[in-house]
Amino acid sequence: MKHVFVFLLLISSCSITAQNKRVTFGVKAGLNYGDNGKIEFTDITNAGENILSENADGRVGYHIGLFLRGKITDNLYIKPELQYTQNNSSYSFDNRKLDYDIKKIDAPILIGVSLLGPLHVFGGPSLQYIVENDLEDVRLGNVKNEFTVGVQFGAGVQLGRLNADIRYELGISDNQAQSIGDNTGQTIRVDTRPNQLILSVGIDL
Predict the structure, then answer these.
(1) For residue 76, is pLDDT > 80?
(2) How confident is the model at residue 35 (pLDDT cuts 50, 70, 90)?
(3) Which residue in 20, 116, 195, 201 has a CA-CA distance of 20 to 30 Å to 56?
(4) Edge-to-edge strands of the sheet including 186-191?
(5) How far apart are CA 64 and CA 38, in angstroms?
(6) Residue 20 has what pLDDT?
(7) Torsion of CA 2, 8, 13, 17, to 10 degrees
(8) pLDDT tens column, 111-140
């Protein structure tokens, strides 16, 4: 968690520079809709044979956080963000549904370009720290990598102090969580990479 505190300290200290007209500090919140990767059931008593593999169904999650936007030129800006996110998805098989929830800290670092009037487009990497992952009725171990990398890109509008954007996020770091303490002879693996649309609304402070 020390990396999270470093991010918080960075954002807080940078907010002091918001008196500069080229730097803006603000808060944001919104909804995300999407899923994670496949769930796989493997028979460990039969040479690790894959006996079932299902894609995730998307569900609605949420996020809340802070952002810092600094102008590089009149039409070009950089926007680091720090936010708490909950991603929700589910898996359906054999007339059964398992809900899968991931709680994480996201730190997107976005480069944006102003186009026409209030419209702008942006994109960049998103650094992610997974705080907790929970698969219904299944005891999961820790994810393989707590820190992962994704990519985000989208478009938004800036109307005075208010801003709104829609973006797409794709996890690019290979990562998974695996069941533990199971005496059934099966291992369950879940792909933790997000694949989602994100709608955010923010306000400059």
Answers:
(1) yes
(2) confident
(3) 201
(4) 49-54, 39-43, 186-191, 176-178
(5) 27
(6) 54
(7) 150
(8) 999 998 899 999 999 998 888 878 776 666
